[in-house]
């Protein structure tokens, strides 16, 4: 790179390529490299990896008038940006070898194409929630990058000093104000003919954030929380001697999203285990568990705020050692069986009772992956091929006229 800087400072690139410069290895070229002895009779070094870099616009190919006829670098490479297509727009010109022994050979050289791969630039974003009809505030989205090169930064790589964000759903449709559902947060890449620094990077999103858009309007009803029971955790080694079994009921026909934070959190005097609070509230109901220390009268409280019509309403549910015990309340589900769990390829859902019901499978973000029905036959089995599902937790929800049953499964 030092040779490039000094070489370009001494010799105009156009003159060089047009053969308008007297240049010999014995004097002027050695002057560029500070009389280092390159190529003299005492130089025993190999220069297989030595090259000079010039601008692509100064190069020539078969379609240009001024072909390069005389070169004095080991390799001459045009351009420095990542190529924007498969063919590559840079050219390698083999030059004259510097060691005196090469004076004994007649050489024939021809240019070759050079493709420079874009460097991977990884980024992650946080999740955000907005209501239907709102335009997401991109300033609330924190984008973290890993992989900048040559001391480049967000300010130097992206136009206007920051990435341009946009949102797409599972089908690739871009978000418009008024839409609802789940959208992935992405960074808009430059057009292929743009000569901007971002063209030198391939954007990789290893942990894609999401935009959750809730329904909004007078028809909404608040989500209620309940403590089903408290289970003694006699095997606990961390002092968390009870497990609280919480439940929510969502009376709306739409999935509601409430991210953990000021509107969805655990409080109280009891130490408790960090837990993944539910933030996707499917229609009907769902459950989750949290270990906590109920000694000395300690308690924990689940706090949740959701819309009731167009106004936010808060609810809370407490758990203490005096709360109802699970042994007296939990009887298990005797109507359906879901197996195996964990599952790898085929999930079986068996109906034990005779009733009509609907079977849905959702991921933790509330995205539906399967839907089918039982038709009041009894002892039926629905088999679901989950081999193409991503690994993680899924919810199997079975809805009948009498009840709603929810099973958590792990896809491995």
**How is the main sheet built?**
4 strands, mixed
Strand content: 35-45%
| Count of individual beta strands | 26
Poorly predicted sequence stretches spanning 5 or more consecutive residues: 1-9, 23-36, 63-73
Average residue-wise pLDDT: 79
Query: Strands of the biggest beta sheet: in what spatial order?
Result: 1-2-3-4
Evaluate the radius of gyration. Answer: 33 Å
Dominant shape: elongated
Q: Name the helicity range.
A: under 10%
**What is the straight-line distance between the termini?**
50 Å
Structural class: mainly beta
Given the structure, what is the number of helices? 5
Keywords:
elongated, mainly beta, 412 residues, 4-stranded mixed beta sheet, 26 strands
Topology:
Elements: H1 2-10, H2 13-17, H3 25-32, E1 52-54, E2 75-78, E3 90-94, E4 112-114, E5 119-125, E6 128-131, E7 143-146, H4 154-157, E8 165-168, E9 181-187, E10 201-207, E11 210-214, E12 224-232, E13 242-250, E14 256-257, E15 264-268, E16 280-281, E17 284-292, E18 299-308, E19 311-320, H5 326-329, E20 336-339, E21 346-351, E22 356-363, E23 368-375, E24 381-385, E25 392-400, E26 404-411
Word description of this protein:
There is one protein chain. By secondary structure, the chain is mainly β. It contains 5 helices and 26 strands. Strands 1-2-3-4 form a 4-stranded mixed beta sheet. Strands 6-11-9-8 form a 4-stranded mixed beta sheet, with no helix packed on it. It is elongated and about 95 Å long.
